[in-house]
Amino acid sequence: MDLSELKKINSIIEHDKADATYKYALLRGVIEICQRNRTLGENQDDNVIFPLGILVEKWILYYYPLIENSTFIPQKKGEPDGKHALIFRPVFERLVQYYKNKGGFSAFYRDYTAGNIPEEIEDTFLGLAKEIRNTIVNMPMRYLGKSYSSEDYSVFSPERPLPAIKIDHIRDRSKFVRSGGFFSISSDLSTIFEYFGTFISGEEGILKKWAEFSKSQDKSGLVSESFVLEVLNTIPETERSVLDARKIYDSMFTTGENPECVWSGRIISSPAQMAVDHMIPFAVWKNNDLWNLLPSLASVNSKKSDKIPSPSLIEKQSDSITGYWEILYENFPNRFEKEIDVSLSGFSRSGWQDDAICVLADTCDYLINIRGFEGWDV
To answer: Are 305 and 169 found together in one domain?
Structure first.
């Protein structure tokens, strides 16, 4: 791993000019992809290739709460009255307005991940995806690193020409995140983002710079750095997924097939003794995907807390884990397939269980040995 890449990124964050928040969104997005969506990457010579669609998705999730907020939060110099407003703000505002009285950000996220964007807003969402993809490629991806190099695309390089994003892509999340072409990043920089990305993108790094920019452009006196940081950390509410998983496990008691604790293998005698455990703790990944929600004894779950199950424990309990996955898949086939396909491993009709267990064990190893989270075993 070439640590000069880390020096380069730090220099870019500090010295690259910014007349919008695009640079911060780009770096934040790529860091998250390197950490949370590593399975979407493909090694090619000395680079790692990622689909642009997953980056577009992250920008939508970053900017939605900023644009939805009742207080105007500037994202470009001159906003709100400047001639050069945020490029995709008008189309984004139409999407936000549509969902305003339908549940807002969380309702949009549920529709998007389920592939149920209403027909009357499909063209707006498709237009937003295209504008964000084009903004990423033509603005921050092109100019990032100008303080360090005179060349365009000196840090991230997009595929050219870019393929079309089509209407069927936005109807299927797993297609969407793989749509719109690809971009490359050096293997060294990808590794640095895996190891140190949390420090680079955290509240003392990229997010702080983002908040500082928005505050500096505010003319109302209502936008503070702490306020922007709070909005930037907004995520869609997905607690309903936990309730859906619990209903499935609760129903097992009524059939006399009491669930077993996924970690200890002991029978759970009643719903009161059961906890729906996040295999990878929510505090670590903010992930409520169904594959991540399995039944355990409440006493065992309490001991596990926010620790990461060891790879050896994942291997040991693989039959139990995949057994529950199959139950969830049977009850929520489309949703389960899309969630595990994007977040954990590519979904195939045969052999997906073994592939997903391998990726899950590798993810836990990464979180323990690279990110430094505490491991756990029964």
So the answer is: no
Tokens representing residue 54 in the block: 């997953």
In b/e form, how buried is each residue of 86-113, taking b as 16+ CB within 10 angstroms? Answer: bbbbebbeebbebbeeeebbbbbbbbbb
**Crossing angle of the two packed helices 333-343 and 104-114, in degrees rounded to 10:** 100
Show the domain range for 128: 4-232
Distance of CA 140 to the CA centre of its chain: 20
Q: Are residues 223 and 276 in the same domain?
A: no
Q: Closest Cα partner for 177 from 56, 336, 49?
A: 56
Number of domains composing the chain? 2
Taking the whole predicted model, whether its pTM rises above 0.85 is answered as yes
pLDDT digits (tens, 9 = 90+) for 82-124: 677 899 999 999 999 999 999 999 999 999 999 999 999 999 9
Return the SS3 of 156. Answer: strand
- Indicate the DSSP class of residue 313: H
CB 276 within 8 A of CB 294: yes
Are 143 and 218 found together in one domain? yes
Same domain, 244 and 201: no
Helices (H), 144-236: 173-176, 187-201, 206-217, 225-232
Q: Is 320 helix (H, G, I), strand (E, B) or coil?
A: helix
